[in-house]
Design goal:
The structure holds two protein chains of two kinds.
Chain A: E1 5-7, E2 10-13, E3 19-24, E4 31-37, E5 43-50, E6 53-57, E7 65-68, E8 75-79, E9 88-95, E10 104-105, E11 109-113
Parallel strand pairs in A: 2-11
Antiparallel strand pairs in A: 1-3, 3-8, 4-5, 4-9, 5-6, 7-8, 9-10, 9-11
Chain B: E1 4-7, E2 10-14, E3 19-25, E4 32-38, E5 45-51, E6 56-59, E7 62-67, E8 72-77, E9 86-93, E10 101-103, E11 107-112
Parallel strand pairs in B: 2-11
Antiparallel strand pairs in B: 1-3, 3-8, 4-5, 4-9, 6-7, 7-8, 9-10, 9-11
The chains are: A mainly beta, B mainly beta.
Chain lengths: 114, 113
Amino acid sequence: EPEVTQTPSHQVTQMGQEVILRCVPISNHLYFYWYRQILGQKVEFLVSFYNNEISEKSEIFDDQFSVERPDGSNFTLKIRSTKLEDSAMYFCASKVAGPTDTQYFGPGTRLTVL
Amino acid sequence: GENVEQHPSTLSVQEGDSAVIKCTYSDSASNYFPWYKQELGKRPQLIIDIRSNVGEKKDQRIAVTLNKTAKHFSLHITETQPEDSAVYFCAATANTGFQKLVFGTGTRLLVSP
């Protein structure tokens, strides 16, 4: 069964550094999302992406964040200048198309900012 | 903005008992309500979902009910087993952002043998 994949599984970085988190959504999916989960808390929406553009972003998704679909398979989240509070698990998700289609989550990237 | 509340935050049951987790949502336009199970350090895994045109859905030991009028939905697990122990999140779609999911705060279910 196809799965969403993410790399790396764990990223450790120094405050102020740039990080790029990578995701490969399921191949026939058209809608892509990034969520994050601070340790012990709920999953929070960051951004949704469709047809090569952002459809919505949350308050968390400020100017330090960007997303890109550089080719037909990858979907990336970039944090330009990481802060301590960016430490969290970042999940990519994708779904086929319909408003009630299931969103499938990747295994996550644990980002630790020191 | 959209909000989903979930109760209880922790739930301890004996193996074989039933467990019920309840959620309420604020966005009357929400039309899709998934439940995810998350084991420690793992991704959220969909266990069951319900769409707004249905009041109840069952899959073996798991069932979900939806009351659109009251904006409530609930997860029911019967004959619980130790492997059911995990954190369970309810979610509801928002009417924006291509149906982004708004998650509840999670319920830590512990099933004791």
